[in-house]
Structures are given as structure tokens and as C-alpha cells.
Amino acid sequence: MRNIFLHLHPAKVNGTALRFNRTFGLGGMAALLVVIQIITGILLRFYYVPSPAEAYNSILFLKNEVLFGQLTRNIHHWSGVFLLLIAFLHLLRVFFTGAYRNKRKINWLFGLILLVLIVFSNFTGYLLPWDQLAYWAITVGTSILSYIPLFGDGLRVLITGGKEVNGGTLQTFYTFHTAVLPFLLLILVIYHFWRVRKAGGVLIFDEDENAEKVPVIPNLVYREFIVALVLVATVLVFATFFNAPLHEKANPAFSMNPTKAPWYFAGIQELLMHFHPFFAAFIIPLGVMVFLAWIPFLDYDGKEMGNWFISEKGRRSVKSTAMFAAGITIAGILFNQYLINFEILMPKMPALISNGIIPLVILMLFMAAYYWLYIKHLSLTKAELVQVIFVFIVVAFVVLSLVGIFFRGKDMELTMPWEI
Amino acid sequence: MSDQQKIEKQNNTEKDQPANISRRDFFSYAWKGLGIFAALESIGVITGFIFSGKSKTTSDSKQLFEAGRVDSFALNSVTAFMGGRFYLARQQDGGFIALSLRCTHLGCAISWEKNKKRFICPCHSSAFDINGEVLNPPAARALNYYPCMIENGIVIVDINTLKERNTFRKDQLAYAR
């Protein structure tokens, strides 16, 4: 046992790397959740039948007849939710401590790939219960694809295997969910960890470089054990008190009202309500992905520091940008919803211009004003500027997602969460 | 071997025997080439394996659905056929059109509001008129439709051929002869 842990870790680590607020243990938590998902996923496979006729019944059987069936399903559901949230927080942690540069460049890219794989795992798993919630969420989720120009609709047909979500879609999703994705995920997680070790372990504060080294057992391994126990306990509490959702059996002829994409795509769906699909489903997400993949390869001056938010000035710019992004996103949603709808205002204009370019330009004018009036006077370094853009994207995405998940009720009108 | 050495070696061989590469280099390139070829071939085979079958299960062959006698549908009315996944709409002038259930915005199932004489999508409140023409965004295209024909006074809908369109045109309607 001792040898296994020493194989995964170096024998000694820098004492300051053990501080909880260095990493919050997020990467380790994500890895543990992957393991939980694989174990509970295998258990669920003993009962699940991937066909439109039988899938829903097999879930009912699991719920009602199988010992701990409901609990296993709940654990699988909640670990899936937590895995995505924790992977996202892990991305934020790595970015804000600056651990994405120099020798960690490539690992940042692999981290992004892992995030995409986790999103796909969640998305393919979402369909499997074959209830109304699953069927319509996947219908809306895959329909977003058809707005990608040129190959988008072909891609949608390829994924769903037909004009609409059907038995073929279920079988494809099942294969990806239970074979292809877990296999890739497992291999890349191991590689991801290996590269962290190759880069010299967790990034530490620059002034702590010469701190005393301490043995991994017990210092690190015990801490990891405690984090693991707390995480497992949290998952179990959620799984005990909150059931994984299960609505009526899927009915391709009747939509739920409202029909929402899975929660991690709620941000894009909310964006779709305000922008022409070409921008909401293609240009903006593509821009964000390119930006994320590109940031490690910019030429930064100075070495990686490992300080949260880079500097005192960086921290100030992060705070104000977060507030600016939240403000303008909320204002934009309300403005577009209640005051001006460009598409109705300018019926003669093609929707691509009236509902795409015009609101985008207005938004960019506000961002430019924010830059010229405030950010420019802080005279930030390049890394701090990239941080400002990153914060804007993240906060806008989170606000859009929260509005889509909690504030959209019947007919997708804006509603208070308790009235949904 | 580092790149530097490789270049030097190539330069040397070029000097000694022009247009010749060493046996070792030749085999090294040959193996790499074969490896890449094998990898590409595998990708092609796997893609073909997965998608050839999938496309056949949803082939474009006709599947005819008998909706009923022409005179059983009133003028200016809409009848739902959930089994065939379409709404059969009969216009004021007697023309028929079989409209897909799916909203052109994000694919939710629309429903016919008899009193308001319009199709409403529950997901993002797009609305369409009896021809499937857009009355209210966010949907940008008119409803898709299935071709229908009238033979011996019976309306027949080909529910395997979904037609996409941007706007409604008169020639999309089918009339009894």
C-alpha cells in the first residue's frame, strides 16, 4: 500500500504545496469522482437496457426492485454533476494561480480536452433514462449544432443518426457513454497527473520556493484521504436526500414546457435567446474555445509566480471586471427581453444583422468603453490583461447559465426560481 | 539522432552520391510511411463501419401514411397525426400540406391552438400560421413538411421524406384533382 502511494507521489514535497488554498484539492477530487463514476456506472450497466422500448422500464426496475438501485443511480447522477462543477473550478484555480504557462502549457490543453470529454460524458448520459426530460433536452442540445454553418446539420444527423433523436441515437450515446469516453477519460487523467509531476508538482508561491521539504507520507497522503472522505460523504448526502430526476417516458410527439438543454448548456441556450444562432451557437463559443487554447502560448514576461490573481493590481482588476461582466450580462438580458428586440424593431433587415451584428457591436462598445475609461489606467501587464478577458468570459457564462437554469419558466419567460 | 546530425548526414550523402539516401534512412521512412498509411486506413474503416449501417437504417425510401378521405377534412382545419408525426393542414382553398411537428428553431414539438389559429412552440414561443409560415421569432424558417398526394380521394403522406424550406409557397400544397 505504502509503495503504491509513493509510486504516485514523489517521496518529499515542498511543505507550502500542502496548503489547502493552494489547490483546494480540486484535481484530486475530480479524479476520485471519475473512479466513483466508473464503479457506479458498471453497476448500473448490470440492469440498463439501451433501447427506446426498454430503457425507461429498466430504470423503473432499478428504482423499484433492485437493492440500493435508486441510491446507486443517485450517486452516479450527483457525482456526474459534481465532476463537471469541480473540473470547472479546477480550471479556474489553475488559471488564477497562473499554472498554465511555460512547462505546463501542454497540460493546460489536455485539461481542456478532459473538460470537453467530461461534458460529452454528461451529455451522452443525459439521454439514457429515455424520459421526457432526457429526450427533449437532447433534442434541443443537438439542434443547437444545426446552426453551425456548412457542416453543422450534417454533424447533428451523424450524432443523432436520423432526422430526430431515436433508438439509433440512444445506442450511439450508450456506446460513447459506457465505452469510448470512460476509456479516453481514464487514459488522459493518468497522463494529466503524470505531466503535473513532470512539471515539478503543484505550482507554489514564488517566495516559498526554498521552503522545507516534508515526506509525502503522512503529510500529503493523509490530507488527500481526508478530502476524499469529505467528498464521498457529500456525494452520499446528496444521493440520499435528492433523487436523480425521472419524468414520464419519452414521448416524441409532446414537448415539455419549458424544454431546457442540459444545465451545462443552459448558458448557450440563454445566449440563443438574445443572439442570432450563427453568433450564439457558433462564433461566440468558438471564440471562447480558441481563446482558452491560445492563452498558454502568448509571450508573457517574467516567470510563473504561483500567486493568486498575479498581483494586487490584478486582484483589483479581477474584482471590477467580474462586477462589470455580471452587470452588463444581466442588463443585456433584461434590456433585450423587455425593451428592445432588434429583430422585431427592424423586420426588413436580415436577422443575421439585426439580431447578430448590431447587438454584438453594442456590447463591444460597452466593453471598449470599460477598457478605455478604467482598465487602461491600471497599466496592467499582458498576463493581467488576459486575466481580465478570462474573468469577463467566465462571469458572463456563469450568469447566463444561472439565468437559463433558475430564471426561465413556462414558455421560457423570465420567472423567479420558486415559481418554476 | 538529432535534427542537426540528420541534416549533416543528408548533406554528406548528397555530396558523395547525389540523389541517394542510406539504406537505414530508406527503411525508416518506409516504416513511418506504412505506419501513417495503416493509421489512416484504420480510421477510414472504423468510420465506415460505424456510419454505413447508421445511414441505412434511416434511408430515404418512401414510407406512405394514409391520412384519410379528402372530404373528411374540413376547409381551414388542422388534424394531428401523432403516429405519423405530422399535422395535416387543409387550407381555405382546399389544398393540403403535411407539416412536421418539429419547430424549426430547436426541434421542440409544436401544438395547434385552435382558437388563435396558429401553431405555438412551448420552448421559445415561436408561432406559425396554418401554412407553417413564421408569425413570431425566434424561429427563422417556415415549418418543414412532408410531401403529400391525393389518390382516389385519399390523402397519402410520405412520412420518410422531410422537406425543408425557408418560406411557404403555393406549390407546396397538394390538391384533389
Structure description:
The complex is a heterodimer of chains A (420) and B (177). Chain A is an all-alpha fold and 420 residues long. Chain A has 2 domains: 1-255, Cytochrome Bc1 Complex, Chain C (Up-down Bundle); 257-420, no CATH class. Chain A is built from 16 helices and 2 strands. In chain A, α11 crosses α16 (382-406). The longest helix of chain A has 32 residues, at 167-198. The relative contact order of chain A is 0.12. Chain B has 177 residues and is an alpha+beta fold. Chain B folds into 2 domains: 3-57, no CATH class; 64-172, 3-layer Sandwich (Rieske Iron-sulfur Protein). Chain B is 28% helix and 24% strand. Chain B has 2 helices and 11 strands, in the order ααβββββββββββ. Chain B has helices spanning 3-16, 23-57; strands at 64-69, 77-81, 86-90, 96-100, 111-113, 118-120, 127-128, 134-136, 145-146, 148-151, 154-158. Chain B is elongated. At the A-B interface, α7 of A face α2 of B.
What's the structural blueprint in terms of helices and strands?
The complex is a heterodimer of chains A (420) and B (177).
Chain A (H helix, E strand, L loop, with lengths): L1 H7 L3 E3 L5 H4 L2 H20 L9 H11 L3 H28 L8 H23 L4 H12 L8 H9 L6 H32 L14 E3 H26 L24 H7 L4 H18 L17 H28 L2 H4 L5 H23 L8 H25 L14
Antiparallel strand pairs in A: 1-2
Helix pairs in contact in A: 3-5, 3-9, 4-5, 5-6, 5-10, 6-9, 11-12, 11-16, 13-16
Chain B lengths: L2 H14 L6 H35 L6 E6 L7 E5 L4 E5 L5 E5 L10 E3 L4 E3 L6 E2 L5 E3 L8 E2 L1 E4 L2 E5 L19
Antiparallel strand pairs in B: 1-11, 2-3, 3-4, 4-9, 5-6, 6-7, 7-8, 10-11
